[in-house]
Specification:
By secondary structure, the protein is mostly beta strands. The protein has one helix spanning 55-58, and strands at 17-19, 27-28, 40-42, 50-51.
């Protein structure tokens, strides 16, 4: 995949799992705010060098965030 930016997810408040692995994402901004039901966010194998979000406040249900290279 060639996704480079995360955007347009703010209004998806029923989203439980989001798999964005194996893309070209370099950073995470406010685009994942207010995802109260998000439990799993897979960002493995991306180019992320900066997490600009406080997951504990923005996504309180999250329990799994794979970021490793695979």
């Amino acid at each position: 995949n060639k996704i480079t930016r995360i955007e347009g997810f703010n209004q998806m408040n029923r989203l439980v799992e989001l798999n964005l692995a194996q893309n070209c994402i370099t950073s995470i901004g406010d685009s994942l705010k207010n995802l109260d039901n998000l439990e799993t966010l897979n960002l493995a194998s991306n180019l992320i060098d900066n997490l600009q979000i406080d997951f504990t406040n923005s996504t309180p249900s999250i329990s799994c965030i794979p970021l490793c290279l695979t």
